[in-house]
Amino acid sequence: LQAKYVGDAPTHDFLASLCAQLSPGALPAGPSDQPGTWVIGPGVSRQQIEASVPAMSQTPGTFVFLFQSPDALKALGTGLTVTPAKIVGDAIPQGPSPDNLLAGIGPSELHLRGRTAIDGVLPAAGWHSTAGAIAQMPLGKARLVFLQIDPRAFDYTKPSRQYLKLTANHSRTLLCRVLANAGILMDSPLLDLWSRPASQAEIDLTT
Question: Which of 102, 142, 144, 165 could be bridged to 156 by S-S, CB 3.0 to 4.6 A?
Answer without folding.
Answer: 165
